[in-house]
Design a protein that fits this description.
This protein is an alpha+beta fold. It has 23 helices and 32 strands. Helix 2 packs across helix 5 and helix 11 crosses helix 12. The relative contact order is 0.11. The structure holds FE2/S2 (inorganic) cluster (2 copies).
Length: about 900
């Protein structure tokens, strides 16, 4: 231990520092300053842990604590209150935050930046934010917030967030002010008396037999309270959303199936001790050759990856019409293979859980998962306890994008709490997070598509093969969704689709924003461009001629009866498309469709419970989760609109207090279903208010709202002779414009959102999606070698920084959806569905090269971006 003296937020401070301990660890663990977040320690690549050291912004995870001897350290907690309020108001007014995990670090950088006496252009601001990563916003509105702050500091008007408002108003984000300042806790910020800290032991092998797990050295380490292995699991060790094929702890004698498998979990008196003990767990492996290629995995004789299921996880097949005859009669036919890459969600908040035994014998779990009722069901099963013995509280997470649907470490944390009788908090490192959670599928897609002489599509044949990795997750559903959207938003008389999900020993793939539709969109949009050229049409005209309209059949055969806003989105971008081309720019265009609601035969519910509290507020209990998408704000707006009560009256909560289980927050459905349920509950409260009763009179009353959608059909099936695979769809057209050097210049995104409940945050969702889509198109990938990701570095993975973003113009088109609240439909995913296709079209217009693999790193647009540069020395071996 070494004593280090410095000034912290203006006061002298002395701390004892262990060798190698970072300043971030000291500030979070000893000084309990939680505005600094750990998203990538010790990489220093995200900016979440920023502090001012002697007045200069520094990433504290990359600074040894002993280096601040004698220096002055300022964190956001040390900034004067009036100034803090300015930052919070600016971020709220500009809608510059979503999950808020990156925001406190950005705020401190922006404080430093706007304290300089220099007017910065938007481009200069973006470059100044290069040390920061935001996975949610696309940075557009962060730069807006900087401009507001800069102006206010120089005597301009103070930003004024909208504090009240119903549907159609730019109401500020619920808890957004506190989030901006790091004052709203995430799971890793929670504390509890007697808290223990957890750590996990992960497999270094993609496939190996576990011969022996020896925990004796770890148990002997002073400060270690428990070490859990498979033998300690009292209930069912196997979990999973669709199939229970995933062990929370792998047992001796079994195989590990990927590099995120957990062999043991440790609880100790400090995070350092827990990790030290985890490193002392000795596991003897007998390595086995991993199955890494999905095509080889589904061949007869391939080793079976998962003991619960053969290597073909799922097959989706359906046909309509006579494809062979239609192709034979087509004026033009194109055929080709498109391939997409594995994508890491890279939500800024790594997985964390806190479990604590309650005095009444129940266990309370603080989760940041996407389905707290699924968490409860699975954790209770692992513990061998009835579900009512486990209470789960959602702590709105720092981004998820589908990657927190599966459980990560909730069950191991709960087990350690039960074993020790003490609260346990387990937080994954960035590397552990990347190793453990499911990714977006790499899919290989072979398409043959025909059209007539006028460019009207005649037939689509598609064969899809996705690498689903070691566990089912929702991989089969992803490939099913990919199949169901295989023709994109186009009218096709004859279709023949087959889509297979394969188990391999690669990291599991499951849900990620777009759920298989981004992949098929890239392929079908490529086919549209190729056919357009053969038919002598421009890209807009080709798409307009084939655009789905009311009365047309979707890929699955569902006849569209309502809210098909695709044509409106095409018309919205028409002038921009034509004028950019007339100006000699390289321009690409693509359309997109994405289901809103799971559909495909699932019974879906939205449930809300309003409870009038004694203090005159109304608790709004919901089953779906907040993960930065703004759901809680939307629910407030729905309830405020119906009741006429001020928005601040409503206090959302997501926990298992009421039986509001509605499944995962997934499939762009939370606004649709949750919003409908909120409207339903609010109408009941409104009826009482209309009878002249006040909230004071109604204290203690509960109002239940519920909506069920149970009339969808699985692909290839009918109900009463009718196909209805989905309740609602979002539609979009995007245009990508390159500059004279082939770099990204502008994206125009026209989206049919049904009705924008909160137009500002709706546009922000689309901007963030476009950002993710551009990374998908150009720079992002997570290749693996022998089943292990080849990098864990944020910059290598290729998420775009602020300076890489082009101008994004969002056009909100409203074609009301009858089944949605106030006509709204989900926008969580569709924002990046067309993006890669539009980028590919623009690149071809620039250099004549039609690219069919993602990411398109060989392009001038990608080469201009200084992230995502994984060296490809022996890339041929990678999967
Ligand atoms: S830069 Fe320190 S946590 Fe990412
Ligand atoms: S708001 Fe920036 S990472 Fe979520």
């Amino acid at each position: 231990m070494k004593k280090v003296a410095f000034h912290l937020n203006g006061a002298p401070r002395q701390v004892e520092v262990l060798p190698g301990q970072s300043l971030l660890e000291v500030l979070r663990e000893q000084a309990k300053l939680t505005s600094l977040k750990d998203a990538c320690a010790p990489q220093g690549q995200c900016g979440c842990c920023l502090a001012l050291v002697d007045g200069a912004p520094k990433t504290t995870c990359a600074i040894p604590a002993e280096k601040v001897e004698g220096k002055a350290v300022v964190t956001l907690e040390g900034v004067p209150e009036a100034e803090r309020q300015l930052y919070a108001d600016a971020f709220q007014a500009a809608a510059g935050l979503q999950c808020g995990f990156c925001t406190p670090g950005l705020v401190l950088r922006i404080k430093w930046l706007t304290d300089q006496d220099r007017l910065l252009s938007r481009g200069e601001i973006a470059r100044a934010l290069d040390g920061h990563l935001c996975r949610c916003t696309g940075y557009v509105k962060i730069v807006d917030a900087v401009e507001l702050i800069h102006a206010a500091k120089r005597g301009g008007e103070r930003p004024r967030p909208v504090r009240d408002g119903g549907v159609g108003k730019p109401l500020e984000r619920y808890q957004g002010g506190a989030l901006s300042l790091g004052a709203r806790e995430f799971v890793a910020d929670l504390d509890a008396p007697g808290l223990l800290h957890g750590a996990v032991v992960l497999s270094p092998h993609a496939r190996a037999r576990v011969v022996r797990i020896d925990t004796s050295r770890a148990r002997a380490l002073p400060g270690v309270v428990a070490v859990a292995t498979a033998k300690d699991v009292p209930g069912d060790r196997w979990v999973g959303i669709v199939y229970r094929d995933w062990p929370v702890l792998v047992a001796e004698g079994e195989e590990v199936r990927y590099v995120g498998d957990v062999l043991a979990a440790v609880a100790a008196e400090s995070p350092r001790l827990a990790r030290e003990a985890a490193a002392l767990v000795e596991v003897t492996y007998e390595p086995l050759p991993p199955v890494l290629d999905p095509a080889a995995a589904i061949q007869p004789g391939a080793p079976q990856v998962n003991p619960k299921h053969g290597n073909v996880l799922s097959t989706t097949r359906f046909q309509r019409g006579d494809v062979d005859a239609a192709l034979a009669a087509s004026a033009h036919v194109v055929t080709g293979t498109w391939a997409t890459q594995r994508i890491e969600h890279l939500y800024l908040e790594p997985e964390a859980a806190l479990a604590r035994p309650l005095p009444d014998g129940r266990l309370q779990l603080y989760s940041q998962g996407q389905g707290i009722f699924d968490d409860r069901r699975q954790v209770a099963a692992v513990l061998g306890e009835p579900e009512d013995r486990v209470r789960v509280d959602l702590v709105p997470n720092g981004g998820a994008f589908g990657g927190k649907e599966d459980m990560s470490i909730q069950a191991q944390t709960a087990l350690l709490a039960r074993m020790t009788g003490r609260p346990v908090r387990l937080v994954l490192s960035r590397e552990e997070s990347i190793r453990m959670h499911p990714k977006r599928h790499p899919i290989t897609m072979t398409y043959t598509v025909g059209c007539d002489a006028e460019g009207r599509l005649t037939a689509v044949r598609a064969r899809l093969l996705g690498d689903s990795g070691a566990y089912a997750s929702v991989g089969g559903k992803v490939l099913e969704r990919a199949a169901g959207h295989a023709c994109g938003p186009y009218k096709v008389p004859a279709v023949d689709i087959e889509s297979i999900a394969a188990y391999t020993n690669n990291p599991p793939c499951g849900a990620m924003r777009g759920f298989g539709v981004n992949q098929t969109s890239f392929a079908i949009e490529g086919c549209m461009d190729l056919l357009a050229r053969k038919a002598g049409l421009d890209g807009w005209e080709m798409r307009f001629r084939n655009a789905l309209r009311i009365g047309d059949p979707f890929t699955t055969g569902q006849v569209l009866e309502k809210s098909v806003g695709l044509e409106k989105t095409l018309l919205a971008v028409k002038d921009a498309w034509r004028s950019a081309r007339a100006a000699g720019k390289a321009v690409g265009i693509a359309c997109g469709v994405k289901n809103s609601g799971i559909g495909n035969g699932a019974i879906e519910k939205g449930k809300v419970r309003l409870v009038v509290e004694q203090d005159g507020t109304v608790a709004l209990h919901a089953g779906f989760t907040e993960m930065g998408q703004g759901l809680l704000t939307v629910l407030i707006q729905c309830a405020a609109e119906v009741t006429g009560l001020p928005a601040p009256v409503f206090r959302p909560r997501v926990d298992t207090k009421f039986e509001l289980g509605a499944g995962q927050t997934t499939g762009s459905r939370a606004t649709l279903l949750g919003g409908r349920a909120a409207v339903d509950a609010a109408a009941k409260l409104k009826a009482d208010l209309d009878r002249g009763q006040t909230l004071g009179d109604l204290a203690g009353r509960e109002y239940a709202g519920e909506i069920t959608i149970d009339d969808t059909t699985a692909p290839g099936t009918t109900r009463n002779g009718k196909v209805k695979t989905h309740t609602a769809f979002g539609w979009a057209t995007q245009v990508v414009v390159l500059d004279a050097a082939g770099k990204l210049e502008k994206v125009i995104a026209a989206h049919d959102v049904g009705r924008a409940i909160n137009p500002q945050q709706c546009a922000a969702q689309i901007e963030g999606s476009v950002h993710m889509g551009l990374g998908y198109a150009l720079t992002e990938e997570l290749p693996c070698k022998d089943g292990m990701p080849v990098t864990f570095k944020l910059r290598d993975i290729g998420v775009l920084r602020a300076q890489h973003m082009p101008e994004v113009e969002v056009m909100l088109v409203e074609d009301p959806e009858q089944e949605g609240p106030f006509g709204a439909k989900g926008v969580g995913e569709i924002g990046l569905v067309p993006t890669a296709g539009a980028v590919a079209g623009a690149l071809e217009a620039f250099d004549g090269v039609r690219r069919t693999r993602l990411p398109m790193k060989d392009s001038p647009a990608a080469r201009a971006i200084n992230v995502g540069r994984i060296p490809d020395a022996d890339r041929a071996d990678w999967h």
